[in-house]
Amino acid sequence: MVKLYDVVGVSAVRKGAPLKFRLANGKPARRARILERNGHDDIFLVQLDRAMPKDEAIAAFKERHEEYADIDAAKPKVAVKVSAPKAKPSTKAVKAPAKSGAQLSDAALKAVNKVMSKVA
Fold first, then answer.
1. Which region holds residue 26: left if phi is over 0, alpha if psi is between -120 and 50, else beta?
2. pTM over cut 0.85
3. Whose CA is closest to 89, among 115, 58, 54?
4. How far apart are CA 24 and CA 54, in angstroms?
């Protein structure tokens, strides 16, 4: 399925930043307000005659507005998945505290160690 857009234009993320293509659906004025609210500068958006895929929309925009023809369409960002090494659960035997008033029976210690070995 190809996504279609009917609004295309350019804006800079902040003053002095390079211009990038912006694609949207709806009305250019509404999208411009959203971009302004998010700190964009040099916003110029136009309504296309019909909805088009990204490449066609950018080509049509460049054809009509030659002053923006030298801007390259940004390549989509590739998400890099970084995974941390999995921590192994501790498999130490549980011992009752020596100076505590609470003492575990041998049966309770065996039960706890059995559960811990299954978790590991």
1. left
2. no
3. 115
4. 10
